[in-house]
């Protein structure tokens, strides 16, 4: 007899509370609901560009801390074109050591996406403030 009463109470609770539910407007009910219907992100390891493997090899041979760089700018590693070798040559020409270059790329990984022309423009801007190249490298 108890299970029947329980079913009756549950049935009344579900169907008898319609008046209580209609007090809320649709605007209030759906206000907190997200409408991103197609926001699913699928990762396919086969579609990763092969350039990423070359980029990782280059950065590892340069001594870059990959984990730190990924934490700071994860999107850089998905770029199709990077200029890590150009950045290395540019900084070597300005007097930076290989350890300093690795440190710069680890802390500022977006630098590998800059073109040599862009690097030169930024360098000239810094030269207006700071007099020597080594001071700029240290900054």
Automatic annotation (TrEMBL):
**Could you tell me the Gene Ontology terms of the biological process aspect for this record?**
DNA-templated transcription termination
User: Any idea what job this protein has?
Assistant: Transcription termination factor. Binds to a 28 bp region within the tRNA(Leu(uur)) gene at a position immediately adjacent to and downstream of the 16S rRNA gene; this region comprises a tridecamer sequence critical for directing accurate termination. Binds DNA along the major grove and promotes DNA bending and partial unwinding. Promotes base flipping. Transcription termination activity appears to be polarized with highest specificity for transcripts initiated on the light strand.
* Protein name according to UniProt: Mitochondrial transcription termination factor 1
Main location (coarse class): mitochondrion
| Family the UniProt entry places it in | Belongs to the mTERF family.
**What binding partners and quaternary form does the record give?**
Monomer.
Q: Quick one: which gene encodes this?
A: MTERF1
Where are its TM segments located? none
As one GO molecular function, the record gives: DNA binding
* A GO term from the CC aspect: mitochondrion
Keywords, comma-separated and alphabetical: DNA-binding, Mitochondrion, Phosphoprotein, Repeat, Transcription, Transcription regulation, Transcription termination, Transit peptide
Subcellular location as annotated: Mitochondrion
